Amino acid sequence: MSAVSTVVVTGAAQGIGRAVALRLAAQGARVAVWDVRLDGAEETARLCREAGSTACAFEVDIGNADRIEAAMADVADAWGSPNGLVNNAGIFPRSRALDMKLAEWEQVLRVNLTGTFMCACAAARLMKEAGRGAIVNTASGRGLAGAANGAHYAASKAGIIGLTKSLALDWAPHGIRVNCVIPGISDTAQPRVELSDNELYAVGAHIPLGRIGKPEDTAAVVAFLLGEDSAYMTGQSIAVNGGAIMIP
Questions:
Q1: CA dist., res. 135 & res. 164, Å (int)
Q2: Any idea what the Cα angle at residue 132 is, between residues 164 and 218, rounded to 5°?
Q3: Residues with Cβ < 8 Å from 35, sequence gap 6 or more?
Q4: Which amino acids are annotated catalytic?
Q5: Using an 8 Å Cβ cutoff, are 72 and 56 in contact?
Q6: What is the pTM of this model?
Q7: CA angle, corner 77, sides to 175 and 65, nearest 5?
Q8: Which CATH code of 3.10.20.30, 3.40.50.720, 3.40.920.10, 2.50.20.10 fits the domain covering 6-240?
Q9: Which residues contact 27 (CB under 8 A, 6 or more apart)?
Q10: Tell me: the pLDDT tens digits for 121-174?
Q11: Calpha distance 19→69 (Å, rounded)
């Protein structure tokens, strides 16, 4: 990344989002910490400041277009146009397809896929004026392999991969790069909805590299995709999963 950057990280109250925010803070970025949980966002922002960066927490529901636009404007007013965005926020309810209510399907698509699109557009409008920017979207291994009890989640994450390619093509003339990271099962709250700690760590025995992911594993790749070392990369989807799912 450049010496001074302003990056918005959504879903940064915990897990991978928090690890990304802390990684960027350690590299000197100003970090706007967005999350629907303000208390968690404030804790992440505090940790970023302790790491020596400037950081501020924002309560943002990425299913709400007006709130996204207002928060992006607040970031720009405070620090100037952001030159980085990490779309990490998402929800992951569990339902079998035949038991799933339409409202639940629509909510997951609204937050995970439409929310990613709305955040990207809000940032890109500012980045276009500056003639540069980098966006990293967060998909999931479930978007590649499917999920028996999460068709809505898997569909939303597969959609993010296609969205990433489309936005990369659309915005390349404006100097805006758009890439995607695809985390595998990681040591976060999400898999603990169904697995105990022992069950979660046991999954690592079936992964080629012998362990589940850490949030910091994904954060390192996100930082790379935002930085100058990836300046000739756009429209790419990078799996960070220890080899659990191989993609072309």
A1: 9
A2: 45
A3: 10, 11, 12, 13, 17, 41, 44, 57, 58, 59, 60, 89
A4: 153
A5: no
A6: 0.94
A7: 75
A8: 3.40.50.720
A9: 1, 223
A10: 999 999 999 999 999 999 999 999 999 999 999 999 999 999 999 999 999 999
A11: 25
Integer Cα distance of 24 and 26 in angstroms: 5
Give the pLDDT confidence of 32-51 residue by residue, as tens digits: 999 999 999 999 999 999 99
Q: Are 16 and 209 in contact (CB under 8 A)?
A: no
- Structure tokens belonging to residue 131: 């003639």
Distance CA 113, CA 155 (A): 9
The single-letter code of the amino acid at 31 is V
- Residues pairing with 95 in the sheet: 150
191 burial class (0-12, 13-18, 19+ CB within 10 angstroms)? middle
Q: Biggest alpha carbon distance in the chain? A: 51
Q: Where are the domains of the chain?
A: 6-240
